[in-house]
Amino acid sequence: MAKPVLPSHIGFIPDGNRRWAQAHGLSKESGYDRGIQPGLDLFEQCQDLRVPEISIFCFTQDNTKRPSAQTKAFKSATVEFALQLSRREAALLVVGDSGSKQFPAELAPFLVRQGTGMKVNLLVNYGWNWDLDGMSNGGLRSHAISRMDLIVRWGGSSRLSGFLPVQSVYADLHIRPELWPEFQPSQFEQALAWFRKQDRTLGG
Amino acid sequence: MAKPVLPSHIGFIPDGNRRWAQAHGLSKESGYDRGIQPGLDLFEQCQDLRVPEISIFCFTQDNTKRPSAQTKAFKSATVEFALQLSRREAALLVVGDSGSKQFPAELAPFLVRQGTGMKVNLLVNYGWNWDLDGMSNGGLRSHAISRMDLIVRWGGSSRLSGFLPVQSVYADLHIRPELWPEFQPSQFEQALAWFRKQDRTLGG
User: Fold this and answer.
1) Rounded to two decimals, what is the model's pTM?
2) Which chain A residues are closer than 8 Å to B165 by Cβ?
């Protein structure tokens, strides 16, 4: 199978906000706010490149077990990021367990895709098991999200941490050592250059 | 969560047999046989280290779409490897679609775990979608396989290729540049040393 020049769908795991905050003498929860502008920059970079679809790991059900100062901070950063995106050229979809108190009410309108432009899927109060449990009742809960070609993770860890287990089955995983608030467009350019060198066989 | 000194369950993706054969002027299908002895060496290395459970990606339903000379060769190598293991101290389980003609009949007895010793799970005619489809009918078809801590892939590709999507959600993925027939115990030692440096948070 021919390798696409540009991935059709890219997943992003913006990890390392807490480590960044601590390294800068701040409380852990202060890191999340510093992830909003990088996210908007990355969104615009993908838009310029005409990437058809992106998915961003905002927070998981597991993450909500963290201390309340942190959960409050990452929820508020997620809401701010989503609302900022909704004012841009984006077809925005939020996927996650909206039946739980941990789901930010402000994002309920985006449980149905809103707007036009690049597809942007935000995982909000998402759980891999919550997602798969849908299969016992008709289908994946993330069924509106297509298969990913490339996943870029910041923060140095080489794992998926429950990020869309079905859509990630054939994705190439590119790990960035930088912490997410240190995002620079050149990092994503390097990820794309790396992707173009990968051989995509899809098991054939 | 404290990081274990040794992973409880390690997955192995032994990729690169065909590339190895071509690089040595052989036909692609000649590579699979050369993966058997490395597999037995790795098994013994895991046994010496007292790893409780390992899973090995033998072949998938996707793989069986390859030319028949290749499918014949990887099936025969898989059967030979499994029978060799069955004569060693291993609790052997084969997981895969045994209702298909692509499943080697010789391995049917191992659809129920046989033997005592380290748990060894072989994925044979396995498909990630075949596995997950079980969820619409009671549960994962690979339910007897536990969650993995570490996955080591040979052959340089940084992806899962459908390897146990549920058991891999929190696994650290370590990529080896060497092709599988070039396996040396030092490569696995390096993977374990790398694993000990990873931070395991399980989303917390």
Assistant:
1) 0.96
2) 165-166, 168-169
